Amino acid sequence: MVLITVAGLGGCGLKSGSPMADDVVPGRLGIGRPLKGASLTVTSKNFSENIILGEMIGLIFKAAGAEVLDRTNLPGSINAREAIVKGDADAMYEYTGTAWITYLGKVKPVADPEAQWRAVRDADVANGVTWLPRSTLNNTYSLAISRADNRKYRLRTLSDVAALTRRDPSAVTLCVDNEFASRDDGLTGMAKAYGMRLRAGNIKKVDAGIVYTQVSKGGACLLGDVYTTDGRIRALRLDTLVDDRHFFPTYDAAPELHSATYAKYPVIARLLDPLSKRLNTPVARELNAQVDVAGREPHEVAKKWLLKEGFIKEG
Q1: What is the pTM of this model?
Q2: DSSP H/E element including 116
Q3: Do the beta carbons of residue 61 and residue 42 sit within 8 Å?
């Protein structure tokens, strides 16, 4: 996959990408090749799940006849979002909670997942962004602790963590990735909502993947922020803690399109709706583990799953 640096995202638009060269044809999706003649760009953020989802979109577009430029693996959420808004990319999977809090600037999430998706869809029209129906793949945040450490602390909820910060503040050491540390729906908001008394010196910022290994080893970090669809949670024997005050929004994955692209190719909805209906949290955990635990490439994982599901076929 091509990694696009922030420097490549200036006023002249995205500068990198790879033509998707797979020889794939319609399976259950793309019959009649309705995108023949279209040139479309797919993008994603730079973590395994979102790359896999971006590759799925690209492969379905390719099977439906489009020429596809693969610009997945952009660093962070904002760069991928801007690519869609500006029309430098045509499609990606985004998360409803991220859009609501981070892009649209809302403070309070909508409790019902479908209502949350509708609210995002309706508000984002003004930004030139079209949302297709959501999946039930809910990639929300949690804190995790190794099962070995949790035999001592017996933490079950985030309220239990807050109680521990008051009872024994030196015990609560945290590894967090940079995005979780800086987002309103991340560390600061969570700590405030639960009344956690976190010591600044006990918070360590690391790359997202390192959070899992550091927590599993214990020692440097008792707890870390994790994504609930991550395959490493099970593989590394981590316990995830319940968000008992419902602080975190629902982060259901849904296709997000540049609106001009959707206006030109409304058939995209017929191509991606069946995919979203099939995606859920257990499927995501399985696919993510193939990348993050087994070491396979996201493109390979996406393609193999689409072939298995019959969405596309080899050419």
Answers
A1: 0.84
A2: helix 113-124
A3: yes
Closest C-alpha to 176, from 212, 142, 206: 206
Neighbour tally for 126: CB within 10 Å:
8
The residues that bridge with 255 in the sheet, in sequence order, are: 93
pLDDT at 108: 86
Long-range contacts from 212-220, C-beta under 8 angstroms, 24+ separation: 212/144, 212/236, 212/238, 214/175, 215/144, 215/145, 215/146, 215/175, 216/146, 217/146, 218/146, 218/148, 218/149, 220/173, 220/175
Q: Using alpha carbons, select from 15, 21, 23, 102 the residue that is nearest to residue 307.
A: 23
**DSSP characters over 130-175:** EEPPP-B-B--EEEEEEHHHHHHH---BHHHHHHHHHH-GGG--EE
- Cα–Cα distance between 265 and 268 in angstroms, integer? 6
How are beta strands 91-95 and 253-258 bridged, if at all? Answer: antiparallel
pLDDT digits (tens, 9 = 90+) for 202-254: 999 998 889 999 999 988 899 999 999 999 999 999 999 999 999 998 999 99
Residue with token string 């959420």: 77
Q: How far, CA to CA in Å, does 12 sit from each of 36, 121, 128, 271, 285?
A: 28, 28, 19, 30, 37
Q: Helices marked H in 147-297 — which ranges?
A: 147-153, 158-167, 178-182, 187-194, 208-217, 232-235, 259-264, 268-278, 281-292
